[in-house]
Amino acid sequence: MKHIPRKRFGQNFLKDSAVLYAIIDAIAPRETDCMLEIGPGLGAMTEKLLPHLERLDVIELDRDLAAYLKKRFPPDKLIVHQADALDFDVNTICTQHDRKIRIVGNLPYNISTPLLFHLMTFADQVADQHFMLQREVVERMVAEPGSKAFGRLSVMLQWRYDMEMLFIVPPTAFDPAPKVDSAIVRMIPRENPESVPLDALEKIVTQAFSQRRKIVRNNLAPFFTEAELIELGIDPAKRPEALSVEQFILLARHLPPLPTDDVSQPLP
Questions:
Q1: Residues 185 and 165 sit within 8 Å (Cβ to Cβ)
Q2: At what angle do helices 112-120 and 135-142 cross, to 10 degrees?
Q3: pTM flag (> 0.85)
Q4: pLDDT beyond 60 at 264
Q5: Cα 264 off chain centre by
Q6: Which tens digit of pLDDT belongs to each residue from 92-134?
Q7: Which of 177, 206, 249, 261 has its CB 3.0 to 4.6 Å from that of 171, i.e. a possible disulfide?
Q8: Nearest 5°: phi and psi at 39?
Q9: How far apart are CA 47 and CA 230, in angstroms?
Q10: What is the pLDDT of residue 175?
């Protein structure tokens, strides 16, 4: 099929066979897996996954590509959902089996962050996730406290997942070639994440990183006094990237009731 990649869908199709086989090795699919692929495109990874599985569900937004995939692969093996992954209810996959879902995909750069947060709402039903993302995004996801890459994405995802960057993928592995490196990340939901109201954690993290160059005392002034921060064991003179995930969770647990003119902004 001759398909012109569409910029509005963030389409960059993986074409390098060596990279594809490396990804399959990392995923290690099993016949009885309940697996969902996001953004299959022309089916390069789909083709490598199918021989290992009884069935594979895929989500493809592009109507033309969804139709092509339905024609290319057996309908009893490949279930194509022509839908927006940002709105898709993952719980509808493999409902006849009492198995957790494995999610894989080459995520479009333009929606990667909101999609990761959307998928986080289904983490209890997910066994693991293997994604290809922009290298910079993966570095932010796995960043350690104290590094320049540590921020909102790091805190929110590390609270819910154990994550590991597996390997780098160069632009030459794609058609068309993106301008940046990509990377493969493995995400395994934590079985017992720290108990904290998600909305409170979002508010604290968003406010803390609203101005990275300012110290915690200034950024969190709408929520905590300096004395309250010290009482919680938080150094008010530190910058937000110096706090640990556990400290953000602690702050969220002590978040006071917010006024109606809430100063925080939603995560992107």
A1: yes
A2: 40
A3: yes
A4: no
A5: 22
A6: 887 766 789 999 998 888 889 999 999 999 999 999 999 999 9
A7: 177
A8: 65, 55
A9: 56
A10: 79
Report the amino acid identity of residue 135.
Answer: R
> In the chain, where are the structural domains located?
7-189, 198-253
Smallest CA-to-CA distance from 204 within 179, 177, 223 is with 223
Q: And the tokens for 209?
A: 């990183």
The rounded distance, in Å, linking the Cα atoms of 51 and 235 is 54
- CATH number 3.40.50.300 given to 7-189: no
Task: State which fold the 198-253 domain adopts.
Answer: Helicase, Ruva Protein; domain 3 (1.10.8)
**CA angle centred on 86, ends 177 and 131, rounded to 5°:** 45
Bond prior to 176 in cis (omega within 30° of 0): yes
| DSSP codes of every residue in the chain | ---PPPGGGT--EE--HHHHHHHHHHH---TT-EEEEE--TTTHHHHHHGGG-S-EEEEE--HHHHHHHHHHS-TTTEEEEES-TTT--GGGTTTTS---EEEEEE--GGGHHHHHHHHHTTGGGEEEEEEEEEHHHHHHHHPPTTSTT-SHHHHHHHHHEEEEEEEEE-GGGEESPPSS-EEEEEEEE-SSPPP--HHHHHHHHHHHTSSTTS-HHHHTTTT--HHHHHHTT--TTS-GGGS-HHHHHHHHHTPPPPPSS-------
What is the amino acid identity at position 137? Answer: V
pLDDT in tens, 189-247: 999 999 999 999 999 999 999 998 899 999 999 999 999 999 999 999 999 999 999 99
| Distance separating alpha carbons of residues 117 and 120, to the nearest angstrom | 5
